[in-house]
């Protein structure tokens, strides 16, 4: 897929476009984040500022990262990460989302 580079008026590849917009992106198009950056990025979607991620917030994260089937994936993500069964991904459970994020959200966690 190609995007129009408005600054230069030419076409650039999807990876190059995402690198301009998203920061560090690998050649396979995955956004590379440290665990700290990943947590900070997730909290941008915590619309009610309660320090945890709800299913609807996770759905918005999946949509923002270009994912399809966001309702289904959000349900699976909550099930995978929510260890105490309260229906939310609390601060201490966010690391449980890493595997899910790498598989479903186009993210790669780096050291």
TrEMBL record:
InterPro entries: Centrin_CML-like (IPR050145), EF-hand-dom_pair (IPR011992), EF_Hand_1_Ca_BS (IPR018247), EF_hand_dom (IPR002048). Residues 33-68, 78-104 form the EF-hand domain. It comes from the Eukaryota. The keyword Calcium applies. CDD domains: EFh. SUPFAM superfamilies: EF-hand. Keywords: Calcium, Repeat. GO terms for molecular function: calcium ion binding. This is EF-hand domain-containing protein. It comes from Tagetes erecta.
């Amino acid at each position: 897929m190609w995007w129009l580079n408005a600054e230069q008026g030419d076409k650039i590849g999807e990876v190059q476009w995402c690198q301009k917009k998203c920061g560090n992106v690998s050649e396979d198009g995955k956004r590379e984040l440290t665990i700290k950056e990943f947590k900070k990025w997730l909290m941008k979607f915590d619309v009610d500022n309660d320090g945890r991620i709800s299913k609807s917030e996770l759905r918005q994260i999946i949509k923002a990262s270009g994912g399809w089937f966001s309702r289904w994936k959000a349900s699976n993500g909550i099930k995978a990460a929510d260890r105490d069964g309260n229906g939310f991904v609390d601060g201490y459970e966010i690391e449980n989302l890493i595997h899910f994020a790498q598989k479903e959200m186009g993210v790669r966690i780096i050291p």
